[in-house]
Amino acid sequence: MKFYESLILLALVASGQCFPKPYDEDVSYAYDFPFMSRSDWGARPPVRTVRLSLPVPYVIIHHSYIPGPCSTTNQCINAMRSMQNSHQLHQGWDDIGYSFAVGGDGVVYEGRGWNNVGAHALGYNFNSIGIVLIGDFVSRLPPRRQLNAAKRLIAKGVELGHISRNYNLLGHRQVTPTECPGNALFREITTWDRFTNYNM
User: Fold this and answer.
1) What is the pTM of this model?
2) How many Cα neighbours within 13 Å face the side chain of 90?
3) How far from each other are the two terminal CA atoms of the chain, in whole angstroms?
4) Domain annotation for the chain: domains and CATH numbers
């Protein structure tokens, strides 16, 4: 190793940059997949938050329908802001309704996060994580990278202890009269681990 390289290494060690940072779910380095925190996509602060009791026994999958699919990160950031505006400013909710969103760019976007009760499935908000795939998936599937990102998010939630290891995976239509998450996406999630054949 050259002398100047040794000096750089010593400086990094002294600053702590050579060691893993402690887990912090509010920043993207906590995840081993593309992730954007609320601050990353420019979320407005919530009106209020209610603590979610963890681990939750349910994961509920949604599609946004509107906004439609996003394929670039800029488009997906705009979709997140649009959803938050709709939920907060027009529907009067405390925040964006979903715990997390997944874009067609393969990035997971933090909504209410792991710790806060969502507003995505009436009757199940206090015991579930709600994950919305951005787009309209009535007749076509999301791209594979979007599906894979959602699966990785669920696995991370289990690993971190936020989702119960014996959780039940549901589509929104199984707990609320709605077509969500769209016929194509619903058929897809019936093949995922822990999908539960359950109806109201």
Assistant:
1) 0.86
2) 8
3) 65
4) 51-190 (3.40.80.10)
